[in-house]
Amino acid sequence: MNSRFAMAAGGVGIVFLVTLAVAFALMPGPHTRADYLVIGAIATFISMFVLFFVLILGGVKGGQVFSKTRPPKKRRL
What we know:
By secondary structure, the protein is mostly helical. Helix content is 64%, strand content 0%. It has helices at 3-26, 33-57. It is rod-shaped, with a radius of gyration of 19 Å. The mean pLDDT is 82.
């Protein structure tokens, strides 16, 4: 597995878990099934939003998360 992929996946996983913890702390109890659905949907939305910006803005290695840099092409004389 690519280390950059693992770093992006781990970061999104941490964002997901932190969002879950914050949402459970803010949502008054006792929790119903609908509360769990809403909390999971919010956590998923925020983690996918973070992943989108990491991929678009290139948070790792100069704009490339899942691809390697290509060597320059050789000129033919």
